[in-house]
Description:
By secondary structure, the chain is of the alpha+beta class.
Amino acid sequence: MGKSMPIVLWVLTGVVVGVTIFVLFSFSGAEDESSSMADPESMDSSREVLASVGSYVLYASDVALVRAGDDAVDSWIQDQLFACAALEAGLENPAMSRFVQERAKQLYLRDLMVDRIIESVEPPTQAEVQAYMLANAELFLLERHYFQIIAADSVIADSLHVRLGWGQNFQVTAQNSSLGQKAAIGGDIGFITGGEMLLQGLPMSIALLDGLSEVVPSSIGWHIFKVSETRAITDSLRVLRSATEALYNSRIDAALDSVLFATDNRLSAEVVH
């Protein structure tokens, strides 16, 4: 799976960062600027003002930077009113405010670098993808018939796993106990390649599964998988697309790791206890 974040997480993180930066503008008005805004005559007359709350000003150029939506001004006013109320109530922790600002800048710069790295990675050609599939035949040229049980917590999952290990019928157990969408049909999620399972964030042990899996945690619960049979791929176009995505993601991960490694060597990152 690699140590780097999957590409979809980078996209989601980018959205979060955009919102975070906008909130920071609304909360503090940028500390240096807000102090000069106390006097209306000190406002930057060259910049278009969209709204103000007391000495805090929202400029059109700031909204454009974060590509905010149509309701940005109303949201900013409401948020700034709450922020001012918090300041008046003495709720601000100056150290926390500084950290939030520094963290937002860190995420902003990180995403700029990540975007540049991703743009520098060439998508694989069809010939490269086909070679990749042949080199990883167990993942992309073979489909496994997967069944799945999802439990709410690890205790329940472990109990179910013990009973399955004793020979309890997997599909009946799924029907009676699974929280998954396929519970009614015995947890049957169909024939899928191991590579496609990897793209769903599952570990290699599940991608190459034969028989009953161990309990696997995820963000939605605790999973138990079973593979009942294997066959040659039947939809080569679908698998070709998944292999292309897998190879492309692996190249992006390698490029990200390379930049991290090189920068770490220059700056010597360490955890100081």
